[in-house]
Amino acid sequence: MEPTPAASPATPAESNWTRGRRGIHLAILILAACAAFWPAFGAGFVYDDNAVVLRNPAVVQFDVVGHWTRPMWEFQVARDELAGGHWRPLTMLLLSAAYAVAGPSALAFHVFALALHLIASIAAWALARRLAGSDAVGWAVALLFALHPVHVESVAWISALGDPACGALALFALERHLAWRQRGAQGSPWAAATLLLAALLTQEVAAGAFLGVIAIDLALARARTPNAYRPYLAVLALWWLARVLVFQSAWGGLDRPTTEYGVPTSRLVLLRGEFLGRALERLAWPADLRLFHAFVPDAARAQLAIPFAFLAAWIVLCVWLARRRERVLLAAALLTLAPLLLLVVRVGSLGQFPFSERSLYLAVFGFVATLVLAARRWLPAPIASAGLLLVAGAFGVLTQAQARTWHDEESLLRTAAERGPRVPYARWQYGRVLLERYRATHDLAALEAAEREFQEAVALLSAARTDGSIFAVRDDHVQAHVGLGWVLLYGAEAEGDRSYQDASNIFRMVTATYPRSSEGWTGLGIAELSAGNVAAARTALERALAENDRSVEAHRNLGRLWFQQGDWARAQTSFETALRWQPDQVDTLLLLGSTRERAGDDAQARQHFDRAAALAPLDARPRVQIAILMAKAARWEEAAREIGRAIELDPRSAEAHVARGKIQAARGEKHGALLSFQRAADLAPLSFESHYNAGVLANELEGVPQAMPYLIRAYENRPDAATARQLADFIRSLSLASPEAFLLLATADADHGDVDSALAWLADVLTMQPEHGGAYFLKGGMLEQKGDLTGARAAWEKAATLLPESFAVHRSLGGLLERLGDREGAIRHLETALKLLERAASSGGKLEMPIDMLRAKILKLREGR
């Protein structure tokens, strides 16, 4: 089946009719693609988009020179072995241009991506029309190409915008090469070679298009000409030379595998065939679409029969077509896998998920062209047309369903975790998204869900040691455990637990196992900073930057450390460095603005706050900071207006209500200020500032009884020891004889590890109420911590007398008596504790420890063990 010869000149009426029909076909193509990919238009920035676009200084600042002279990921990690072998200057220029026009508007990027995909579909139309000599065939191929479900990842994912761009350039290059051949191969195919060079500068996989050129020539039996491949070899050499200069390596960065699979050579050989077979399987039956197609290390568990059956069927088909001299069909069949062959030369370049749907962008053309040509060749025209339209409809339905999963990052990664429940990477990535939701909303359900995902990832990583169906890399271990550390850190904050010890232990384990993990050191630094261990926090954060000097999180938190220390110059430097590697990051802009304000540079502070407000118009925090600046300048009306706008944006912003309270207090509106501080205290139960201001003002306006609950809560949440001492002196100065209030203050000190201060409050309690059982119980615990076991025994014996029904008292006293060698006394109190525990169990009460454990303890004491 050779290409049809050129038709004789058409009459004007025929030409108009042809153009009109082509216009209708084009409109149908555009409408069908828009309908299929419509759900993606509502999607935001997901997964790598946040790094590649929003956090990439080269994109945000339109760094044209940087795109050409630096690797794609160089902005994130400076170490060569982690920067990867990606150099895609044209892709980055496209992303930069889209950002320059539309800013951080995800919709604009999605429109741009779909436009590029439509251009690629038109390129498929042109190539198929030239290959088959039929505009009808070209349109059918273009329609199936545009709607094929494996394209969803390339079109809906903003970071993959280079896929349709590369596909369009590569398909136009193949069309120009075929046109050059059909014109008699006069001269050299420089137009096709130039397009191929542009495709290479968009994506490395475009090198497969050169194999497509060879496949077309082989299938169509074109005469060999000495000048046929010289332009292609020239542009390949030019592209390679450019990469050599960028990567400062003779291999041009292509020698850097992204993944070490850690399996025998035999499995890697099978992986090459499996990759090609699974590509054919997904092209023919695109039902199992997912973000992460996991590699299975154990070949026996990899279910290789189906992909190798598809590969064998393709080989048989190509041989059969060659024997029957079905040259056009053979060319289409060869174009299905020819663009993929270079990918399997170094399988390590395929990544942790080698069966990615993105890699099939060009291969789709060969598959759908084969399908259309076969239908037209061997089926009656009406049946062929109806069948192809039915396939197109099915493709459109599957594409739309898959595009819905890209609506937002949580939907995308939840779906990925559901479809890959035994993929550690999918589980911890979903945990990361849930953690981000908790950071934004403080929804404890999100934190608990994140913990489950990280725990499941850790369990899978442990199982991977013996289970050959689970594949994981070093980063999976790091990220799963770092995620658990963050869960524990936020959990400690939510519960008011100021020790952060569990979180620190997780991060220390990560840094001990993976000492070059910047994320582990950063997490440890933040945990230590939260716990008030400034020296340890600084050491950990500086180590994080030693491992990766482009860690935005480490720079930002080191800046927070300097800010807390009042070192405005160092804080400013840290925040500015963080913004260098992640421009226009709202949190960092706010921190830098606050630093400038503390340093007395209100004008610069205002610039940073205004920029943050422009970037995040729905975020109340920039408005709060602007209001504070206005109040500082005694511009009360402007301050009130700004804080009102902030509260409209986020009525649950405790920070905004505190700022409004301060503005109202400064204007003499004390009762309004008290209501604002109380509202802030309700919204932020762990906020020292909210409770302190509410307590002080309530004491002035309403009296000590109304103020005391807020002052106690402020004392519990005090930021440092100096503040605790000042607040303690203020509380003692109040005319209040309340042993319960003082006991709460003692408990707060106990939670903070301030034993001496707790004992001082307890002395006040016992002065006011000498028979206070709760005070004696806490006093015993404090004395035990100080090592005064005799004093602790006396306190707990007094507590046992006053609180005979307290399990905690008898359990603590029994344990202490055991340590002191009083076995009989220990047994007596532990038996009392057991009876109280059994009584609680029989009434359905909450047990403070397992009954069996306590029984075993008593039995051990009785046996003298």
Structure overview:
Among the domains are: 36-254 and 261-288 and 296-348 and 357-404, no CATH class; 409-530, Serine Threonine Protein Phosphatase 5, Tetratricopeptide repeat; 618-736, Serine Threonine Protein Phosphatase 5, Tetratricopeptide repeat (Alpha Horseshoe), CATH 1.25.40.10. The protein contains 43 helices and no strands. The longest helix has 27 residues, at 106-132. Helix content is 71%, strand content 0%. The chain starts with 11 loop residues before the first helix and ends with a helix. With 865 residues, the chain is an all-alpha fold. Residues 1-10 have low confidence and may be disordered.
Please give a quick description of this structure.
The chain has 865 residues and is mostly helical. The longest helix is centred in the N-terminal third of the chain and has 27 residues, at 106-132. The protein is elongated.
